[in-house]
Amino acid sequence: ETGVENQFNITLTVTTQERLQEIPATTDSAVVLVMDTSGSMGGSRLTAAKKAAMDFVDKYVKDSKTTDKRYAALVGFDDDAITVRGWTNLTEGTSDFKKFIDKLEVGRTLLGDYTGGTNMEGGLQLAYNLIDSGKMGVLKDCKNINIVLLTDGCPTFHVDESTRNSTTTVKGVEGGGNEAYPEDWKNVESLAGTIRADKINLYSVAFHAGTATFSDFKAQPPKHGICLKLDHYY
């Protein structure tokens, strides 16, 4: 009780049905690290994401044998999603792969353009394309295949369909800008389902927690339906 009539302090405990586990490393394993470089990842968030990615790389190859395969690829995304580093067997060395992680900059992809949007669909689609292509080559014997998404926000861009099947660059189309319109997030949800259905493990790591407000745009703009707005996310 607070001492004020009809006002109470209530403590809520939130639990999830899923338990975060370490990714098992079998003899041949593969993982795509999908890293958010949108504007809101500036400062400590991208620094933390880089450290997490590099720590993962070290642990991924720990105790592996020289005959084992520990394949990894790196995707960065903001407005567009780009393959920063293709499939690399990390048992042959991790320093080169780490350098590519370290080169990631907020809002500046390898295309050289300054951008700040969040094309999460593009990042996941590109990772899926790399895996699909790899299954016909270096990943043909891999049974343990994973995607790890490192991000702080919600999707505000969606895939340019003319580039959807690319293994190098999946371009984005601006949707909500700093809000998530249905065309930005609905495909992310369905794509995640496709990835899991293809027996690919999908993990996400959040680098920010915040409040979200939901607005129903029935009149303006009518084409967008429901909009999800997350504070200052990009």
Mean pLDDT: 83
CA radius of gyration: 19 Å
Strand content: 15-25%
The percent of residues in helical segments reads 10-25%
Structural class category: alpha/beta
Strands ordered across the widest β-sheet: 6-3-2-1-4-8
Shape: globular
State the separation between the terminal residues, measured CA to CA: 40 Å
Low-confidence stretches: 216-234
Q: Count every helix, treating DSSP H or I runs of 4 or more residues as helices.
A: 4
* Strands, count: 10
How does the major sheet shape up? 6 strands, mixed
Q: What is the N-to-C order of secondary-structure elements (H for helix, E for strand)?
A: EHEEHHEEEEHEEE
Oligomeric state of shown chains: single chain
Question: What does it look like?
Answer:
The protein has helices spanning 44-61, 95-102, 120-134, 182-197; strands at residues 28-36, 69-77, 81-89, 144-151, 157-159, 169-170, 172-174, 201-206, 213-216, 226-229. The chain has 234 residues and is an alpha/beta fold. The chain is globular and about 70 Å long.
Outline:
The chain has 4 helices and 10 strands; from the N terminus they run E-H-E-E-H-H-E-E-E-E-H-E-E-E.
Q: Which descriptors apply to this entry?
A:
two-stranded antiparallel ribbon; 4 helices; about 230 residues; alpha/beta; 10 strands; six-stranded mixed sheet
Topology, element by element:
Elements: E1 28-36, H1 44-61, E2 69-77, E3 81-89, H2 95-102, H3 120-134, E4 144-151, E5 157-159, E6 169-170, E7 172-174, H4 182-197, E8 201-206, E9 213-216, E10 226-229
Parallel strand pairs: 1-2, 1-4, 4-8
Antiparallel strand pairs: 2-3, 3-6, 5-7, 9-10
